[in-house]
Structures are given as C-alpha cells and as structure tokens.
Amino acid sequence: ALAATYGGGYEEHVGRASVPALPRILAQEQIWSALLRLRGVDAGSKLRALVERVAASLIGVAQAVADDTLGLSKLHIVLKSQHAFLRLLGHAGAGHVLTLQLLEQRAAALGAFDTALEHVQCYASFFCGCGVKINVETVRARIDETRRGYDKMTGRDLAGALDDIRAREDAAWLFGLRSSDLFLRIWQDEGRRLCLERVAAASNAESNSDA
Predict the structure, then answer these.
(1) Is residue 155 a contact partner of residue 109, using CB atoms and an 8 Å limit?
(2) Short-list 73, 71, 77, 79, CA closest to 106
C-alpha cells in the first residue's frame, strides 16, 4: 500500500522500472528521507524495490550534476530545492557524490548564462526594435534557437554558448538602461543620425560612380 501511495506520478525510469518524478520526490522529502533510512529492512518487498530505485535515481542525477551533464530543465529543479536534494542524497548513502559547493558553482554558471541570454534578447527585441534600424536577424535567430533547445542543454554546453553574438558585452550595460527615457531618446536620435549619414554616404558614392 505504501508503494502505491508514495510511488504515484511515475515520470522517470531507472532501467526499465519507473520511479516518481524528481519534483514529487523533493516535495515529499520527509517521507522519502524516512524510507531511505529504512531501505535495509523488508528486503524483497515492492516498497523496498521502489526505494532502491529512488535512491538510484537520486544518485544518477547527482552524478550528472557533478559531471556537468544534467539537462538544464532538471538542473533548475535540483537547484530550486538543493538542500532537500542533498539531504535525500545523504540518506541514499551517496552524500560524497555531490557537495553544496559544487552545486553553488553550477548555480552560478547557470545564472550567468541565463542573465546573458536575457540581456542579448533585450538588445535584439527592445533596443533594435524601437525605431533604430539595426540588422539583428541573425542574433534573433540565434536566441530563438537557444530558447528552443534550452531544456536539453547541459552545463557543459553553457561555456561559450553565446560568444558568437558580437553585441553580448554591450547588451549587458544596455540592459541596465532599458528603463531610462532619457537614454532611449538619445539612442533613437543617434540611431536616426547614423542612418541618415549612411544613406547620404551611399548616395554620394553612387553619384561619384556615375560621374
């Protein structure tokens, strides 16, 4: 009966056997902590088998975090409840696999990437869409591609993932000025001036070539 009660919501697998999804395990931390501490009893029962699968699932996730190969979608879940995850991992007898320090490193790398992605998206959608004509179709396509594949990316994919976007560094300080009406007016005025200069230069070049 306990196996049926606490094993519901199967969404993941260890081998061919199902285990509760990670968010469900973390939400029921107290229950699973107690079950993991008692995993040595009642050998051969369905509950024991379920608890062993949950332990294996937790250890597998922890190892993937340590190797930096866990998908970002699941990494967000772990980081959101990192202390609960580490406690459960300890009850599974594998506290050595992953430390809080390493989790914090993973969180910092993920946070930096998410911030950079937000900055370049703001640059492409806001600053290049407010009356200033800047060709950022390639940048927008790159951002859309990253957003679509985000959940399947791993920590190893983050390093250098946005380095091909030339405006990345400028996008960071522009993001901080997005709420400034004064800066926006200056940005638009300068953008129009540069556009007019380019049109005039192109016209002069065409006239000179005709002559």
Answers:
(1) yes
(2) 79
Nearest Cα to 139, choosing from 167, 114, 115? 167
pLDDT tens digits, one per residue of 30-71: 999 999 988 766 666 788 889 999 999 999 999 999 999 999
Same domain for 142 and 76: no
Regarding whether 79 and 142 lie in a shared domain, the answer is no
CA 1 – CA 73 distance, rounded (Å): 32
Amino acid letter, residue 162: L
Please enumerate, as own/partner, the contacts of 145-148 that have beta carbons within 8 Å and a separation of 24 or more: 146/117, 147/117
How far is 203 from 207, CA to CA, in rounded Å?
6
Structural domain count of the chain:
2
DSSP 8-state assignment for residue 180: -
CA angle 79, 8, 27 (to 5 degrees): 30
Q: Which two tokens stand for residue 206?
A: 């065409």
Q: What is the domain extent for residue 43?
A: 2-98
User: What is the tens place of the pLDDT at every residue in 127-152?
Assistant: 777 766 677 788 888 889 999 999 99
Q: Is the dihedral of CA 35, 41, 45, 48 positive or negative?
A: positive
The answer to whether the CB of 186 falls within 8 A of the CB of 134 is: no
Cα separations (Å) of 176 from 82, 108, 132?
A: 30, 20, 18
113 and 203 co-located in one domain: yes
Cα separation, 122 vs 171, whole angstroms = 8
